Amino acid sequence: MSDFDSNPFADPRVNSPFSDPSVQQAAGGGHRQAALDDFNPFADGNQTRPANQGAGVPPPRSAQTQPAIMTPSDDPPPYSQSGAQKVDTSELQKRQELESLVAGSPGVHEDIGEELERKAAELQRKEQELKNANFSGKRENNWPPLPKFFPVGPCFYQDFNVDIPLEFQRIVKFAYYLWGFHVIVLILNLFGSLAYLIADKDGAATFGLSILWLVLFTPCSFICWYRPLYKAFRSDSSFNFFVFFFIFFFQFCVYVVQCLGITDFTVGWINGLTIVTKDGKAAAGGFMLVIAFFFTVEAVASMFYLIKVHRIYRSTGASFQKAQAEFASGVMKNEAVRGAAADAAAGAARGAVSGYGSENRY
């Protein structure tokens, strides 16, 4: 009966379950998927767009939209080659020139090879000496460098590269050169005093003293002020620094007297000017003035050197109390002093015991 009651002209899809809008929207998803498949976001101008862009598909971002990653507003600085990127080829060119020179001159190659072998042998010898010294606790003396046949051997050990720290090697070597210059001037003073004696009979005393100064001051200056300075920089010894300051200041005063030529102590400015004014004695007087100039150079160099060493000494934090402590410890380490102190203590103990025994007898 219901079939006859229905309207034959009505839409047959009205009561159809597929007429539901949600079902139709789901059925139309295939067309939207096809439109999305045709969409190419990387095409120029993005001309291929979904057909139903207006039906629920969001529009593409415009050029004014802020991107997710911030881009720098300023352009990067222009490229410039830094100093670390520059390659220095001067050393390589020098090496290539040296190799070409050696290849073209066989004699040069042999000389370089001999020099390298000599330095390698010297380095090996120093290493062996250092090992022997560390093993035995003693070092073989090498100064003065006397020949093997000489009846007297070397008295001191001296090696700046082994004993002296690198930052103080130059100043200690300068002291050594200053001592050598002092010896040379004393020898010249001997000849100058001889010329003074020939020019004037009053130079006999000066000539005799010049022999004494050469024989006496040559070893004494080495032992009394150079060796203390060497040991001071070798072991950072305040006591040896004080010994150097005291004796070297006295040496500076002697240099001043020698350069002036006061009385008959040495030839100097006064004696030289006196002789040069005499007739026929200009050569002897000129030679004496040259020696006086050398004594003056020694005095000036000694003054500046003394100030330099004193500044270095003060920068190390040393003091007179430290020197006293080093002297006391050094005295107590001496075997002779310890033996004498032990004998004195033993004698005092025996005397006390004998005195105590004699009192008990009575």
Automatic annotation (TrEMBL):
Keywords: Coiled coil, Membrane, Transmembrane, Transmembrane helix, Transport. Its main location: membrane. One of its GO terms (biological process) is protein transport. It comes from the Eukaryota. The chain crosses the membrane at residues 174-198, 204-226, 238-263, 283-307. It is found in: Membrane. It is a multi-pass membrane protein. Belongs to the SCAMP family. This is Secretory carrier-associated membrane protein. The lineage of its organism: Eukaryota, Metazoa, Spiralia, Lophotrochozoa, Mollusca.
